Amino acid sequence: MMHLATAARLATGCASTALKAPSGAAPKSLLLANALARTPKLPASSALSLHHSQGFSTRAERKKAALERRYHWIEPEAERLIARAYARHRTLQQRDQPSPNGWTSFPPSISLKDLESDAIEQEYHYEPKTRGDKIAKTLVYYGEQLMHLFFRDKYDHHAVTLETIAAVPGVVGAAHRHLRSLRCMKRDHGWINPLQEEAENERMHLLIWMQHTKPTRLERAFVICAQGLYVAAYSVLMYLSPRTAHRTVGYLEEAAHRAYTDYLRAVDEGKIPNVSAGEVAKTYYRLDDSATLRDVILHVRADECMHRDFNHHLGDLYDNNEADEFPTKMDETMGLEEGQAAESSEEKSGRKAGKGRKRQSAATAEAAAATAGYSTQAAASNKNE
User: Fold this and answer.
1) Is the previous residue joined to 107 through a cis bond, with omega within 30 degrees of 0?
2) pLDDT 10s per residue in the chain (385 long)?
């Protein structure tokens, strides 16, 4: 507005002077034209914002707040602890390397007290917004009732079967995004690797539980039939409506959280012996030799929280027409240590602002990967997507 006022006064002054100028003098209209050319021009949107700055500022602040809380359906404390717990087995290749955030080795420590906290134990539920959300919730509800009817109080057998199903969506979703990238001949923007990582994590859960229980022949037959139907149905759903597919997985992980909470309660009540943790779990979660079944259940439940919230977040991205945006991981917004949140936020802002710009250098990518808690290989692959 100051630029416009200055230009107006200059134009008025120049015009009045031009009327009084002698015939031999240089025309003041040339000075006016030069002055206006040097005056910065404001775009229409900026001019409007000067008159309605308060309304636009409020909307911008609301949008900024929404972007900062991508995982708005859970408490910030839960987001921090879930991200911290999940980072323990996502950085195997760098576990002995020093990192910019001060860690001398991976994984970062997380206590059983944190895993038992109300923030993780609390059952969070994403309220359905669309018809697809309601269909997804209904499908999962009846599937959960069928599982309870089949297994009843056999929580260990329930866990084995649950993981054979839960490991399917990640690999199907990754394949869908991979084929989509090839078909459309464009980047994937970092969706493939987290989905593959989710499938691998669920498969490791299965191997962990196989050291604690052995499924019966009937249960194995149930798994074979259920897996075949689920792979076919989920593949079709992912092709027709990816957002509904991710929302279905989000509700499925909500059910998994309830199942592991029931499993934990059964161990605490003595219905299931609290035996020593298996070797697979000790290696995967870096547990002490004194670790027990209860400790393993706490770690697995925290993993399911991450899968629950990440898939709901992917569903939100489709809702907001952001299928070609980088997904926001929890530790990018919350940070795993004090001071790390700023670095992670800068990395995320750089990725979004860097669309069409020059890619970051390899050294910067490695530093960002170590700060965010990812392996170098996964981070480099995400950057290239």
Assistant:
1) yes
2) 444 444 445 444 544 444 444 444 444 444 444 544 444 444 433 333 333 333 445 656 655 655 566 777 777 777 777 777 766 555 444 444 444 444 444 455 578 888 999 989 999 999 999 999 999 999 999 989 988 888 888 999 999 999 999 999 999 999 999 999 999 999 999 899 999 999 999 999 999 999 999 999 999 998 999 899 999 999 999 999 999 999 999 999 999 999 999 999 999 999 999 999 999 999 988 888 999 999 999 999 999 999 999 999 999 999 999 989 998 877 655 544 444 444 444 444 455 454 444 444 443 444 344 344 434 444 444 455 5
Q: With the C-alpha atoms ordered 329, 333, 337, 343, is the resulting torsion angle positive or negative? A: positive
Residue entry with tokens 């921090």: 80
For residue 41, the 8-state DSSP code is P
Q: Give the C-alpha separation, 209 to 212, whole Å.
A: 5
> What contacts 181, CB < 8 A, 6 or more positions away?
187, 188, 192, 385
- The model's pTM is 0.65
